[in-house]
Write a structure and sequence with these properties.
Two copies of one chain form a homodimer.
Chain A lengths: L9 H6 L12 H6 L14 E7 L5 E7 L1 H5 L3 E5 L23 E2 L5 E7 L2 H8 L3 E6 L6 H5 L16 H6 L7 E2 L7 E9 L2 H7 L2 E9 L11 E6 L5 E5 L4 H12 L6 E5 L14 H11 L3 E4 L2 H7 L6 E9 L5 E13 L6 H8 L8 E9 L13 H19 L3 H8 L18 H9 L2 H4 L1 H4 L5 E10 L6 E7 L5 E5 L7 H13 L6 E5 L16 H28 L6 E4 L2 E4 L6 E3 H7 L11 E6 L7 E11 L6 E11 L6 H20 L30 E6 L21 H13 L10 H7 L4
Parallel strand pairs in A: 1-13, 11-12, 15-16, 19-20, 26-27
Antiparallel strand pairs in A: 1-5, 2-4, 2-6, 3-5, 7-8, 8-16, 9-14, 10-11, 10-13, 14-15, 17-25, 18-19, 18-24, 21-22, 22-23, 25-26
Helix pairs in contact in A: 8-9, 11-12, 12-21, 17-18, 20-21
Chain lengths: ~775, ~775
Amino acid sequence: MAQETEVREEEMQREYRNVGKPVTRIEGAGKVTGETIYADDMQLPRMLHAKVLGSPYAHARIKSIDGSAARQHPGVEAVFTPADLPEYKKNFSNRRGVIFPDEEVLFYGQPVAAVLASDPHVAEEALALIKVEYEALPPVVDPITAMEESSPLVRSPLGDVDRSEERGHVTVGVEQEEAEGKPSNIASQMNFKRGDVEAGFEQADVVVEHTWRSAVVHQSYIEPHSTVADYDASGELSVWTSTQAPFYIRDELSQTLGLPENKIRVTATEVGGGFGGKIYLQELMVAALAMAVRRPVKYIMSRKEDMLAATPAPQAVIDLKTSMTRDGKLTALKSRVVYDSGAFPGAPMLPGCLLVGGYYKCENLDIQGYEVLTNKVSVGALRAPGAHNVTFAIESHMDMMARELGLDPIEVRLKNAVEEGDPLPSGQPYPRIGLKQCLEAIAESEVWGRRNRERGTGNRGVGLAVGGWLGGLQPASAIVCLNSDGTINVTVGSADITGTNTSFAQITAEVLNVPLEMVNVTTGDTRTAPYAGMSAGSKTTYTVGRAVKLAAEDARQQMLEIAAKRFEAAPKELEMADGVVRLNGSDEKTLTFQRLGRLSTNFAAPFPAVVGRGAITTRKMAPGFTAQAAEVEVDTDTGEVTVLGFAVAQDAGFAINPLSVEGQMQGGASQGLGIALSEEMMYDSEGRLLNGNLLDYRMPTTRDLPPIEAIIVEVPSEEGPYGARIVGEPSIVAGAAAVGNAIADAIGVHLTDAPFTPERVLRALGKL
Amino acid sequence: MAQETEVREEEMQREYRNVGKPVTRIEGAGKVTGETIYADDMQLPRMLHAKVLGSPYAHARIKSIDGSAARQHPGVEAVFTPADLPEYKKNFSNRRGVIFPDEEVLFYGQPVAAVLASDPHVAEEALALIKVEYEALPPVVDPITAMEESSPLVRSPLGDVDRSEERGHVTVGVEQEEAEGKPSNIASQMNFKRGDVEAGFEQADVVVEHTWRSAVVHQSYIEPHSTVADYDASGELSVWTSTQAPFYIRDELSQTLGLPENKIRVTATEVGGGFGGKIYLQELMVAALAMAVRRPVKYIMSRKEDMLAATPAPQAVIDLKTSMTRDGKLTALKSRVVYDSGAFPGAPMLPGCLLVGGYYKCENLDIQGYEVLTNKVSVGALRAPGAHNVTFAIESHMDMMARELGLDPIEVRLKNAVEEGDPLPSGQPYPRIGLKQCLEAIAESEVWGRRNRERGTGNRGVGLAVGGWLGGLQPASAIVCLNSDGTINVTVGSADITGTNTSFAQITAEVLNVPLEMVNVTTGDTRTAPYAGMSAGSKTTYTVGRAVKLAAEDARQQMLEIAAKRFEAAPKELEMADGVVRLNGSDEKTLTFQRLGRLSTNFAAPFPAVVGRGAITTRKMAPGFTAQAAEVEVDTDTGEVTVLGFAVAQDAGFAINPLSVEGQMQGGASQGLGIALSEEMMYDSEGRLLNGNLLDYRMPTTRDLPPIEAIIVEVPSEEGPYGARIVGEPSIVAGAAAVGNAIADAIGVHLTDAPFTPERVLRALGKL
């Protein structure tokens, strides 16, 4: 159960019967019993299966592709080389604008051709029969090398870059400078400057400067990317896909394939894990092939294909220099933030630059961001994209400076932590936030309580770090209908990847003052659902939840008006509770929801059906902060780091479903521990992925993870429903930094490269 | 193309760009190319196929059922006898309240057990292994015999009868008397009385009295009843079924299976023909079996199963006595209207009694209706249920009386035809109607023009008849959304069985003043769609169309308000045309729909998503009348009747899509000709169906049908969108009567039994 802070007042809680209460997820039973229908479970008449041929080179020129032998293979229905593709609006500057390259292959595993067969194994077999002649080109694998003037170019120059997908994760009114002038591997850059950093360093008593590296990590959802598409005789395209962003896919397909949006139906099938990585990827290819063959096409990535050619999270190299006065005041921060974007733009340089200087008040800032291209797979979002990379840097520095000055790491953070009104590096002021409250809460955690007890004993240590995320902003809408039997249906357009539909049921039940079971929530497809933005940027409850609340209030009003007419009273004289509308204080003048349902649906019913509608927009962020503490034990002989305990304090604004919020906090923390300890996609010097499977790419299992203490902090947001703010992403942000600080607490050395593998630990200890 | 009458003014038409224009159906291409996904095309993981064992007796007691041998059959997964069924709220008084009888079998082919197997052929094979021991009971097959006091009882007594399904087809505030007291085979009865019929007969110059019989006819949709159901671990029931009434099914399943409506999702799959027969039938069984085995279950009726055990339209026996003065005034009408309901109540006695005395002003009425049970399959609706049976009687009488008095059949009808304000037999006054205008229009038809030319030559004749239908009433709602690219999505809850979604697209495009292609319409399922009544009773355009219009107007207003804010103007200063909103007269202050879409969906967009909502109810009927003329040739040697020409004038109120209205008129007329000429389900004395297939049950094919002249009359309804009124049903009503009158015109004899088979013609001619 959630621990509560003083921020949520006892009084306030008692008013609520549904929101703020822990409930299990409405779609959960289907998932745990295996009954949920995923995209791969879909069968359509005449359906074909696609398999894709990936490039064996990280950089090459295709000289010729010959699909004729594959076409002859028994069971093969079609082979698509670049030349066979139907027309679409190509944009080689964006990963999602390319089905197959016309000529230049940019990363190892990049799809260059596809086979359609009635059986997926036949399709796979036939891939070997496609003859591709490549001219190998020099690959550029390391981003720092790529930035050098002397570096070969990763690719032909970029044209117009569309950054709409990244904006879904973090929506701030700041633009980066796209590459211009002389061709280079720098796709874009940006600079935030404030005050005078050199003067700031001068004033300080301690200056720390290091370079921090983090690895390419994969979202590693259980379900790989999965899509089915069909294009029918009416010119209507239907796409069923495991996505967080059905409306975004509709919009993109519309623009790329030249179909109006009203002729496209995207159904977000149940998502078997997304974490930011399931926005839009293979849908264009599957749709285009279905349109070409006029048959349904299914494409389910194998694990290997997904690791080779989906969009993992980027590695980053952060040069950071910070300084502090003796009394713990941060005086200057200078950073070069380099994100390796892979072969296409799309790296989270913007949030990285905002966050590296965004946690603490600092008068002197100079943050220079680079988004650098390499011949690796292009990157995508992974829960607070880019945040963990820079947080690892700044939060290690905070500890290093505190240690040098002999200050308490929590005190030093509290002294500098941003509050409402403080500027982001971009100058935008923060709205109401709860960073300080998270720090105060983590100070009370059991894990942090062991800080001084453990230090130095048996190579154990305890460390902490903060993290945060700004969140996305997008309009949203919802419909709330009263059924004939008095139960309630809610329809939204947002994919439910984190239990948001359960929270929407709670919100609706709260507004209508009924037990939760009376409400069900459905994610419609893009033809039947009211619009919602992508389920990314942690914004779903914050935005769609508000629309649901409005729609429920609208339905409530309609129901009160029906009852008021029947009672010849005013709506405000009525009360609504437990499925009954009642004239204040009357035992006789009552109408059940069921009766209201019948009165508005029966044959010749006297009232119209009750259809509540809510539509909102918001331009105000509700950033979410976290403070996390780790207790580790380091085996100085083997280099192995064991996390013994972990605590996450996070500001949820208001936890509509504390169980779900805790789940998010624990899930994100687990991923943060994976980033800290073991997850790393490894490439050789030719840009070939070395560990494209889940045996060699090491995610932590439950056996690797400690119990995770979740402490919900509630500093209400200004616009979210019941004060809820963004929740999904912050929990991943601070893990690497907290574990790194705990290791330093244990062995006295900060590791500058994550993950903290045994090899790196031993190297840090001077044992390798 | 539709011929127009003076009722729709030329001026009015010119105002419209979308409504009133003939357009092809938006879902048509999928149907004609075979790409449409019907229920039978669905595949779900782990799905089982059901086959049903029918009773070989029309009346029997089940002594024992042994499914054990069938259960052992390889491939069989489950066998359900009555004892194996899960619990449900049985109601043996309604067909839809019984999955299998506990004991008493009531009609030949009644399902008594089911097999589930992974292959439908295996399931069918295993049926033969179910051992049922029956005790045969005396069957009662003829309804008139059944009414006799001495008749054996058809069944154990009825309890509470639910008539909600019938009310969907015709919604008038009149109740029938349910059977009470001594058990008999009369399920219900009713009486309408006005004036003094005996005095009326006295005043008249001619009195005609006959008995009119019509046959059991089958809806004979191309697609038989088809259902898939699944029940998941969350306790949610999903049903995909070929139905006209998804919300009705939801409500019924909720009550019968004890599930709340918010846990039931009914998807109306594309209906391959309904005609009133696809409301609710096997859905309960399929859902119950799916719940029992916790796997998806599919049940597709074979043609034979459908003809044996679906719900055809009833036979009726109408005793009618009418009288007229020399100058053509109807003075009295007395009728006994007997509908054979089969083994369960549900016959359309109520509309029959209303219509037999509902076409003409008549001061003296005595109409006695009986709904009689027999051991035959229970009946359902077929397009204007019950109307053709009584119309055959009254419209034959009008001709007979006119002929005896030497009056013109059109004149005599015009003299007596009901108008706005005239009472129905129940006393309710008619709203605005167009019966007279239909008569005037048919007088101008080509077919009627041949009336005097053809008479007597070569056994050719021309006859006419009127018909009408009152229609159903139910609340409706709709949602109209603006997409990001400026196109429009409409969501409704009504199954589209007649092209109604196309009309809704026209209505929306009209309101928003855009080309039709910019609008698409989707029927959602009962979880995502706003409520709509069943697509029956011809009410879909009349009710849902009005909701769509309101929703489009709401969306329009929201769009104008966004533009008004951008232009700093008032919404009323703006105009909207061709996807652009413009400040009156300005070339600069314009906003495209696409821009409006982006402004309400983009990241950090300044405006909420545009979601128009419309919800209506109506308690005012919009009855639809028709006048139809037939030209026939009778082969007096073989008795064969050939229809050489047919004309239908019908009041559509306002034909939103004249192409679709004509299609309805022609389709209904074709079915009317089938009823007139050849369609008849034949039972032997043991109640066994003799012609349960489409070779022996003879529907007219295109080779049997003449060209059908469609004349659209437009007397606007008071509440329908743009004046539209009910359209789907009236066209079937007058065919038998018109052909009968034409035969009489040709050979001088009225046939009193339909269909007019060669045998009956020869008998009437005294040749048999």
